[in-house]
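Fill-in record for Glutathione S-transferase.
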Amino acid sequence: MTALTLYYHPLSSYCWKALVALNEHGIDYALRQIDAADAAAGAELTALWPMQRFPVLVDGANDVVLPETSIIIEYVTTRHPGAFAAIPADPDAAIETRLLDRLFDNDVMTPVQKVVFEHLRPEAERDAADIGRARAALRKAYDMLEARLAGRTWAAGDAFTLADCAAMPSLHYADKVEPFRATHPWLGDYLGRLEARASVVPVLEAAAPYAHFFPVK
């Protein structure tokens, strides 16, 4: 019986982050999809985590329920280790990995979400100034990341880490909101490597039937 169950939605960026890590480990896990129309699934999520955010990981073998993607990834790496070293053993590399995890979540994904949320509103009610500020914040983040990461294979160096799990969804969606492949060649090439990675391909394939719901065209 599979011990781990991830409560998720196929379009959620933070669910992607967790799924990539689980796939990197190569361990068995089950999925419980949360949809707005599925009241039973929503009630399950609320019972597990009253803040009602996903993903949420349930480890039935250890009676553990965990929210927050970065914490989920570190937990799985510690308690159900597979082939994936999410956090490098080297202390300096570990700090760089954790820093980049925060930068991708806070400085890339947060502005993306601001633009997305505005586009969920009727066009006449959208805050153009907020959208403009979010796009400007993304361009600033692109410049910083292009300079900081140039020459590396993966975000924190030669090894695929937690930082890359964070980078994949944030950059994938950011490129749809404020395209960067033509202006930031390292980031563009890096996103291509991420999207081609074996742990990422099934995540993108599972999301494809829902892609039309993404509101920024």
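KEY FINDING: The mean pLDDT is 96.
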